[in-house]
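Checklist before submission:
- one chain only
- standard amino acids only
- sequence pasted in full

Submission:
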Amino acid sequence: MSAASPGSTTRAEGRSEYGVALFLAALGLLVIVQALLIPESRIVRGPVGPAAVPMVVGGLLVVVGIVLALDIRRGGRGEPEGGEDVELTGGSDWQTIAMLAAAFVANALLIEPLGWVFSGALLFWGSAFALGSRHYVRDAVIAFTLSIGSFYLFALGLGIVLPPGVLRGIL
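Returned file contents:
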């Protein structure tokens, strides 16, 4: 029984990379199928309909998946992460991940009853807290500024009204 040298490649090493190529191609096919199912609008007539952009994106995903699979077959391999600021031996910080997830879940549950301004502020403040900021008052002021600003950006800039919640009639 011989041990493989550290620099040699084995047949099983590229399987995960083939999985990425397969995922990209399958995602591209899904996008194309969904684009073909978009109903035709009787109002819009012309060469570019609502399915044009999804068809292009889906086609590009399929092409990228095929090209990646061909590259892997010819011996191309992704390089492992080698950044100097990345600790490859360290584990995940599950406490931070759990706090971020809790902020997102709280936002999803509170956006209808409280409205975007309060749930968004809680999301922004909770994210800052989870990522290590301990300036509670400053973060709350910034969080409310961001949530009110994004509320009006969506309403005035995009024409999308986010849920006002308890501030209905005030905003």
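Reviewer check: The mean pLDDT is 87.
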